[in-house]
Design a protein that fits this description.
526 residues, alpha/beta, 5-stranded parallel β-sheet, 3-stranded mixed β-sheet, 10 strands, 48% helix
């Protein structure tokens, strides 16, 4: 006896069995029960959310021998034929494989003929956005005014590619992503019917990586059942999907927030040796940081999961701005990883960046603890990484000399990046007002702002007050912008000098050569 995959075995047989699409099912059921049936329906949504299934259920409801109803009997000949996939008056067309206009015209030539055995002739066109422009043009007139015995059901994953002329002729119903909770619950119900041992954590993990698709979730469950021989454990599911154990991710996040570089790199080496998906691991870290930020806002204090309790405890060690900055760094790591030839290197650099630049240069990473004889202090000393000026005269800062003065100081990490992106706008006594480009808002953490205040106080040899505001418009007069303009001018001069180069002139004339780009390896010496 042949095996039927779960995605086909548990395909909904009625509208009530469809999960996660109550809004669409209600619209279709009301139109059937009230006999207000549109001649063309467009079902859109991502893969595996029920577009084709709803199209077949709608065809069954229209052709049931007991009459048009949202509750077809399921026992008559048309119902049984539709369930078995052998109903002659349901014409299913794959738009991806029938893109030629001649094929569309051939299909439409049969529209005028009455249905063979049913009440209506149903055209179910899947991936309709793949049809060519000429095919759409051939379809338009029939789609707008089909014979009374013909109904069109169009399904697509990309409604944006359909011509407006087609959209205006259809009743558009958009199917949503199915929630993780709904998918997980359904997987556990199906596993009981199949006499399969499935843990709740495994069901949640499969639902998470199904990305809103019930079909994808059932395919993953099929794979897990085959691997575990009917017993699906947490470890098996994690290895199958290629994700790192959640407890291990919490350990890594713990090391990052506590700036324990030795522990963080040890865990990184461990997950690399296990062959974990490092891109997925960075995404998991970003997801946990988002959970941590929510815990800080909602101030959750009781959890059923010990790992969530640990996240809550970690949230108390940082402020919300630091968590947001770590989240941005995790996303940047995900963005850069595909560019790097060696994912291991990119992953470790992302972890190092999150530790070193977490709150500026005030906190050095913990490498190996050294025995130092000094009084114990309950509060960590704040020490910005700034070199003392050699001048004995008290320096002054103004709007005009800000950029020149600040490049004289040696700064590190996020504090240096903040100074490069701010602009001094006003000086009133010991109060200094700055503007920060809104694109660099993530740099403005409480610790970095404190370090900037301390840095300027030390430089000016006086207590100062620093106020940093966000600028709505892009800033033009910052150290970063000045450096960019300087490099741009040097490149422009280099381009002009190439016009007098005889070798380049020869290459351009003989081979139509072009200068694609110019890079300055050391802009200070150019």
């Amino acid at each position: 006896m042949s095996y039927t995959v779960l995605a086909r075995k548990y395909r909904p047989a009625t509208f009530d069995e469809v999960i996660g699409q109550a809004h669409v099912c209600t619209a279709l059921k009301n139109s059937l029960d009230n006999q207000k049936i549109h001649h063309a329906y467009l079902l859109s949504g991502t893969r595996g959310v029920g577009k084709t299934t709803l199209g077949r259920l709608f065809a069954k409801a229209l052709n049931c021998d007991k009459g048009i109803s949202s509750q077809p009997c399921g026992e008559c000949s048309p119902c049984e034929s539709l369930a078995a996939g052998g109903f002659l008056d349901l014409i299913e067309v794959d738009g991806a494989s029938r893109t030629k206009v001649d094929e569309t015209r051939e299909l439409l030539d049969n529209v005028q003929y009455a249905p063979s055995i049913g009440r209506f002739k149903i055209y179910l066109i899947d991936e309709v956005h793949m049809l060519s422009t000429h095919s759409f043009n051939a379809l338009l007139k029939t789609l707008e005014e089909p014979p009374a015995h013909v109904k069109f059901i169009l399904a697509t994953t990309d409604p944006g590619k359909l011509p407006v002329t087609v959209l205006s002729r259809c009743l558009h119903l958009n199917l949503k992503h199915i929630s993780k909770e709904t998918i997980s619950s359904e997987l556990q119900v199906i596993s009981k019917k199949e006499a399969v041992s499935l843990t709740e954590a495994s069901a949640n993990l499969i639902a998470l990586h199904a990305y809103g698709s019930m079909r994808d979730a059932l395919s993953l469950l099929d794979q897990a059942i085959a691997l575990g021989n009917g017993v699906v454990t947490d470890e098996l599911t994690e290895n199958m999907i290629g994700v790192t154990n959640r407890e291990k991710v919490v350990d890594l996040l713990d090391a990052i927030i506590n700036k324990d570089i030795t522990q963080a790199l040890a865990i990184a080496d461990e997950v690399i040796n296990l062959g974990s998906d490092l891109y997925a691991l960075l995404q998991d870290i970003a997801s946990m940081l988002q959970e941590t930020a929510l815990m800080m806002v909602l101030d959750k204090a009781s959890f059923t999961d010990l790992r969530d309790q640990r996240l809550y405890e970690l949230s108390k060690l940082s402020d919300s701005q630091e968590i947001q900055m770590l989240y941005q760094m995790a996303l940047i790591g995900c963005r850069d990883m595909p560019i790097c030839r060696v994912p291991d290197t990119s992953f470790k650099m992302a972890i190092l960046r999150m530790i070193v630049f977490q709150d500026g240069a005030d906190s050095a990473p913990q490498v190996e603890p050294q025995t130092v004889k000094k009084p114990q202090s309950s509060k960590r000393e704040e020490k910005p990484a700034v070199t003392e000026t050699l001048s004995k005269e008290r320096p002054t800062l103004s709007v005009e000399n800000w950029n020149d003065k600040m490049v004289e100081l040696t700064m590190q990490g996020a504090l240096q990046e903040l100074v490069r992106n701010i602009q001094l706008t006003k000086v009133e006594g010991n109060a200094y007002s700055f503007m920060l480009d809104s694109s660099s808002e993530h740099l403005l953490t409480s610790n970095i702002k404190t370090n900037l205040n301390t840095c300027l106080s030390n430089y000016l040899q006086d207590e100062v007050t620093v106020v940093v505001s966000l600028s709505v418009k892009p800033l033009d007069d910052t150290i970063k912008k000045r450096d960019e303009k300087s490099v741009s001018n040097k490149i422009k001069k280099a381009e002009e000098s190439f016009d007098d180069d005889e070798t380049l002139s020869f290459l351009k004339a003989e081979f139509d050569a072009k200068i694609e780009s110019i890079e300055l390896t050391n802009t200070e010496d150019k």
